[in-house]
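User: Predict the structure for this protein chain, please.
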Amino acid sequence: MRSIYKYLLIIFVIILQGTLFRYIAILGVKPDALLILVIAFSLLNGTRESIILSLFGGILVDVLFNNAIGFVTISLLSVAYLTGLLSKNVFKESTFVAFVFVFLGTILYNLIMVFSMLLMKYDINPPYLFNVIIVQSVYNSFITIFAYRYIVMFNSYINTKKFFFKI
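Assistant: Here is the predicted structure, written as structure tokens:
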């Protein structure tokens, strides 16, 4: 029951990402709210839950927005797994820790995407693409500074709330 709210939040974030976030692009780069959310849940809850949530969100994004199934899913799974492994020895509620993890996770996520595109023989412009990676990493990290405390409160509320009904 508790995780149903996390799935609903992921669906809501994907809808926002596909509609509203294209209007707040900086230098042609949109923030990746799903990636921020997956990294945050991975920091807070560990590897197992983050893998399940990233699999759900990645498949949903791949089916709705991408021509090739699996690019986003594999990238999200990799970042979620590594973040979950590395989060065991850090202060999880720290915004600075989340800032660093989101910055590095965005770089890793985009590098996996670029590598996948190279394997599929897509035509890419490396200098432009690496500028986009840096801009998106900074943009996602900046958003994390403001959003992370709300994600922590949401996660805390969901994990401690006792529900009187079950779905």
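The radius of gyration is 16 Å.
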